[in-house]
Write a structure and sequence with these properties.
single chain, alpha+beta, eight-stranded mixed beta sheet, 8 strands
Length: about 260
Amino acid sequence: MLKGSWWWSAGVAALLLTAGCKQQGPQHQDVRGDAHAQVEAAQKQSERALKQAEDAQARASDEQKDVANARQDVQRAQQDLQEAQARAQKETQEAQTAQQQASNQAQQAQAEVQQSQQQAAEAQRQQQEQMARTQQQVAQRQEQVARTQQQTAQQQPSGQMQQMVTGRVVSSSPDELLLSRAGAPGQPQIRLQVNEQTQVMVNGRQGSTADIAEGSQVRASYQDVGGEPTALRVDVTSSGQGTGGSQDLGGSQGELPRQ
């Protein structure tokens, strides 16, 4: 558009100059020649200006392309930045979620540890109470045995000797006990008569000869009645099975204080 306008202006100027030269006559041919030279110079100058304008326009177009490319680069950079920010936000949220989960798990573990400690403390307390009750029961049984022994000693007829023997049961019947004992020369076994007055204690409880198993370890007090050793009291200190003849324990004899 710029080039066409210039050529039209140059053509009009040339026509006007030619017409003026014709009107002025031959005397002005030199002047006309100078004008023509000026027109050609102006035309060349216009061509150079047009070329410069075209070059400037090309450079402007290139610069516009560079600007467009720069805008695209900026847009891509902004998009990358947005994506990076979104990833960072997502990673932050995931980290916060993981931290919260870890905190919850730690709290849960701590609560479980506290509960386990409380259960252990409660179990220990119950065990201690059970041990205390057991010890109290044992003490009561020992006291009961002591009272029974005292009562038995008080019931013994005066002037009669009471003896003690410890051994393992070889055989047991409602009428007699056969004990195996060691340490008594010439008398490895002793046969004790049992009657209704014989008191039998099994692990601190009142029992009978039917509760005495063969092989049980016993401690018995007896005295001679009509020439026969008759059991006054039999304490079963440990239960057992079999005759136990090969596991004899030492026995002892002694005399209880007379009443």
